[in-house]
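Record format v2
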Amino acid sequence: MMDYPKLFIFDLDGVITDTSELHFLAWKKLAYELEITFDRDFNEKLKGIGRIESLERILELDPAKKGISEEEKIKLSNRKNDYYLELIESLEKKDILPGIETLLQEIKAHQINIALGSASKNAPIVLEKLGLKDSFDYIVDAAKVKRGKPDPETFITAAQYFNVPYDECIGIEDAVAGVEAINGANMFSVGVGEKRYLNAADYVVEDTSKLDFKEIVTNFSDWKAKKEASV
Ligand code: B16
Ligand code: MG
């Protein structure tokens, strides 16, 4: 018998849309003003990481920036966000990653709840721009999450909102820190990207076009059965 999950929790950047390029451009502009060299490779380390923590990682690239006050950090991260907000202005429906709309429709058709578990405080604006806001039953407020990914808090917040057991939830993530967060919440983790990075995930697909409702649920159902057999 197939066991259906009670909740799907999606990451935003790298799963629903590719805002990481826009985060990169905004950070690059700020880094340039601070005379810090910042490249695409380093940007990889910022995926799924919150705003202030991302800034701190960038500042660490220049030992001269060690003494920057907390107040100044807030100012700098606000400036980066202004650049980012300008860039997301142009986001539209065609920026939704392949396969995502179909997957959302399939989940809805099975009357399963859908949540967004993103580290981004801009998540509601991004979903609005993509025309996807109504597809989500709940958006975790990143501003209220005390411990960001890899801590499971983001995913647990969504499950608690719907009052469903954690092992009845499926989380979908592209970042290593995100997969770790899902696993830490005792949920079924779906990784989107390269297997060699995402080997901790319970199920991995190479890109979003390969996210198939039936495949995911079948794998979830097997995982659940194994878990129950081992108790
Ligand atoms: P904001 P996700 C994350 O999104 C991004 O991957 C990360 O690069 C960004 O710094 C973070 O959101 C915070 O975003 O500055 O908009 O609050 O992958 O968790 O959806
Ligand atoms: Mg992500």
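Residues 45 and 54 are 9 Å apart (CA to CA).
Residues 70-88 form the longest helix (19 residues).
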